[in-house]
Structure to design on (264 residues):
C-alpha cells in the first residue's frame, strides 16, 4: 500500500481491517495495572493545580492514543522521540510512568515491556510549558516555540497529535518537510488527524478542538482539515512511505485517525 492509495477510513472500515490496524481491547487495560499506570502518570500534575491534574488524568485515561502507544509498542526501536505541540508534556509523563510501573511489576498483562526513551517537546504556549516543568521538573526537556519555525534537531520518532489542522495548508506542507528532514531513512512519524470525510463525527471533533483551545487560552482558531486519503498523499509528497491509518477514537464520538508513516 502506498501513501497515495485511497482507502475508506472510519470505525466500520477499520473494524474490518487486519489486526495491526486496530487498537486492541482487552481486560488487562481496565484492571488495576492500567489504573496504576494512569494514576502514576497523572500524579506529578496534582501539585500544579486542579486543571492540570484533572486534564492529565482524564486525557490519559480516555484518549485511546496513549494506550495504543504502549499496548501496540508503536515506538518500537525508537530511542529518541520528538513531541511537537506537546502541551503540558503528557507524553513524557506517560512514558516515564510506564518504565516505573513495569519495573515495579504493575504492568498490564500481555503488553510489551516499555523501554527508556529520550523525549523532547516543543510547545507554543508558555503556560503549558510552565505546567509541564512544574510537574516533571529537571527531567523535562521542553522548548517553548512555534513548530512552524523552531529547529527540530534529529529524532528517531516524531509525534504530532491533533496539531496539524491548526496550521494553514501551506504551513502543513512546510512542517511535514521539516519533520522529514529531522528523521533518518526509516524514521517514524505518528501523526493524528481528524478525518474530514467522517461526517458528523468530524464536525464533533472540529468543534471540540475549537472549544478546548478556547478554554485553554489559545483563543478561537480556524482549522484547516483534510480527508485521510489527502493527508496520506501529502505525506508521500513530503518524503514518507506507506502511511498506515489506524482508527484512534474508540469509545469517543470523534473522527481521529493515527497515521503511522516511515521516512524514505
Amino acid at each position: 500500500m502506498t501513501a497515495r492509495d485511497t482507502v475508506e477510513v472510519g470505525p466500520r472500515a477499520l473494524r474490518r481491517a487486519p489486526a495491526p490496524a486496530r487498537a486492541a481491547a482487552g481486560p488487562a487495560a481496565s484492571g488495576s495495572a492500567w489504573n496504576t499506570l494512569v494514576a502514576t502518570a497523572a500524579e506529578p500534575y496534582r501539585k500544579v493545580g486542579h486543571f492540570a491534574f484533572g486534564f492529565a488524568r482524564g486525557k490519559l485515561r480516555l484518549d485511546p492514543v496513549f494506550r495504543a502507544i504502549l499496548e501496540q509498542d508503536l515506538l518500537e526501536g525508537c530511542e529518541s522521540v520528538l513531541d511537537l505541540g506537546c502541551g503540558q508534556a503528557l507524553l513524557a509523563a506517560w512514558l516515564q510512568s510506564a518504565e516505573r510501573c513495569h519495573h515495579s511489576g504493575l504492568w498490564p498483562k500481555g503488553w510489551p515491556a516499555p523501554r527508556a526513551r529520550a523525549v523532547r517537546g516543543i510547545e507554543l504556549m508558555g503556560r503549558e510549558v510552565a505546567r509541564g516543568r512544574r510537574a516533571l521538573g529537571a527531567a523535562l526537556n521542553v522548548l517553548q516555540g512555534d513548530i512552524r519555525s523552531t529547529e527540530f534537531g534529529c529524532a528517531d520518532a516524531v509525534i504530532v497529535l491533533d496539531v496539524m489542522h491548526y496550521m494553514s495548508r501551506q504551513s502543513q506542507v512546510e512542517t511535514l518537510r521539516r519533520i522529514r528532514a529531522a528523521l533518518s531513512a526509516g524514521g517514524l512519524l505518528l501523526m493524528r488527524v481528524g478525518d474530514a470525510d467522517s461526517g458528523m463525527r468530524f464536525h464533533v471533533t472540529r468543534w471540540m478542538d475549537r472549544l478546548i483551545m478556547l478554554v485553554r487560552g489559545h483563543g478561537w482558531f480556524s482549522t484547516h482539515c483534510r480527508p485521510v486519503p489527502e493527508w496520506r498523499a501529502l505525506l508521500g509528497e513530503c518524503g514518507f512511505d506507506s502511511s498506515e491509518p489506524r482508527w484512534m477514537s474508540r469509545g469517543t464520538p470523534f473522527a481521529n485517525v493515527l497515521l503511522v508513516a516511515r521516512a524514505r
In short: The two ends are 14 Å apart (CA to CA). Residues 34 and 264 are 36 Å apart (CA to CA). Residues 1-30 have pLDDT under 50 and may be disordered. The chain has nine helices and seven strands.
